[in-house]
Every structure is written in structure tokens, then in C-alpha cells.
Amino acid sequence: MPVIETSLKLACTPADLFDFLARPTHLLEISPPEIRLQLLDAPDRLHVGARLTVRAERWGLPQILVSEVTAFETETLIVEEQRSGPLRRFSHVRQLRTFSGGVELAECIEFEPPGGLIGLMVTAERIDKELRPLLAYRQERLAKLFSQPDR
After folding, report:
1. What does pTM read for this prediction?
2. Which CATH class for the 3-145 domain?
């Protein structure tokens, strides 16, 4: 199964970063405008069992994705798994690790491309090529947000 791993060190507390990541509305702040992300249904704050429904546009097509939080450990871990969406499987693990200057956000995405005829066009390589810039954008936004003194 294809895997994408990223890591970002931020000069903030684990509590501040975790609180930001645990609030689904903040996803809109760190997502590229071209995907036209809309939060259709989500709690104010994540917890185990919470479901998020989002609408995004990729390849010119609107897509509805439903994910569920399957692990949630305060200031350390958030795991979301796709329950409904375009891929056979999608798991997003966000792990926070403290270091002397702040916190490291390690992310791991595992996915399985769709099957059938769509799977012939939407390959693992194409998905990887789409996800990496999205993750880079999010890292850039997080770096800017958490370099501001009022955060």
C-alpha cells in the first residue's frame, strides 16, 4: 500500500498545535484554495468516533469524503480513516513529538487507489503526485500560523 510521510518542526507547544489540529474548521485555513474544500459536517472538536464530511474538488470533479477519527490521544495523536470516498482506503496519522525547541508534527498517509476503470486512470502514482503538494501547502501554512506571536 502506498505511503507518504512528512515531518515538520514548529516552535510552539504540543497543546497549541494539537488544539489547532483537533478543530475541523482549521482544516479550511491550511488547505489550498484550488481544492475548494468545504466542511459539510463535523463536530467543533475531534474525538474518537467523530465523523467529518467534506467536499473537495480534484480533477475538476466535486468529491464527498467521510472520515472517522479512530485514535485520539491528547497532545500526541490523531488518526482519521476514510469511511466513504473515492479511494479504496485512506488513513491519515498525525503524531506530535516534543523536542527542546517545540513540537514535531509527523504525518503518515496510507492509501489504496480506487478499483475498476477509474483505478486505471487514478493510479497510486497520480494520487501521490496530487497529495504531496497538498501536504507541502499545509506545512507551509502551519509554519506561518505558528510563527506568529499571537498563536
Report:
1. 0.92
2. alpha beta
